[in-house]
Amino acid sequence: MANEIEKFDPSTLMQGVKDRIKATFVSLIPDGQWETMVQKEIDTFFNEAQVISMTKKKEAGSSYWNGDLYQHTEVAQTPFRSLIYELCVDKTQAVLKKKLSDEWFTNNWPITEENMTEKMKEVIKEAAPFAMLKFFESISMMYVNQLRNDIQNRSI
Predict the structure, then answer these.
(1) Res 66 pLDDT > 70
(2) For residues 131 and 34, what is the distance between their CA atoms, to the nearest angstrom?
(3) I want to staple 77 with a disulfide (CB 3.0 to 4.6 A). Which of 81, 93, 115, 132 is the partner?
(4) Alpha carbon distances (Å) from 72 to 88, 121, 153
(5) What CA dihedral angle connects 68, 73, 78 and 81, to 10 degrees?
(6) What's the number of domains the chain is made of?
(7) With the CA atoms of 118, 122, 127 and 129 taken in that order, what torsion angle do they form, in degrees rounded to the nearest 10?
């Protein structure tokens, strides 16, 4: 089968890396030391977590003085895991793009009360209390912050 997943063999990877680099440096490094160095790099790739910083733009500012909002995240993960994550993100985005351009979405979007399924209605009913809580929470916090600013800026 062409789609079979092959079992990963670290020794094959190690030998390939060793051969390619050793061809450049020939015999400058003794075999024992060379194998130790290569094994250390492979172990680092699979086992040692590194802190990866990501900054992603959340939303554009609505005016000159309201700057863009960014979300900064730091994650500790191995280089191997980072590689797999990137591949999964790419695959997931491709699948979602395909699904969202599917005939069902183009024929039924936007969703209205007439074309909404019973399952969608159930999900909305279950999520409504939480959605309203979050809605009023954000409005309340906005007013509390405005009140605090007004009190601080009041000259007494």
Answers:
(1) no
(2) 59
(3) 81
(4) 21, 35, 31
(5) -70
(6) 2
(7) 120
- Does residue 90 lie within any of the structural domains? no
Is 40 within 8 Å of 7 (Cβ atoms)?
Answer: no
Of 20-34, 51-65, 107-121, the one with minimum mean pLDDT is 51-65
CB of 18 within 8 A of CB of 1?
no
Task: Give Cβ neighbours of residue 51 (< 8 Å, ≥ 6 apart).
Answer: 74, 75, 76
Structure tokens at 58: 């959340």
- What domain range is 134 assigned to? 110-151
**pTM surpassing 0.90?**
no
Alpha carbons 61 and 55: distance in angstroms, whole number: 16
In a domain, 86, yes or no: no
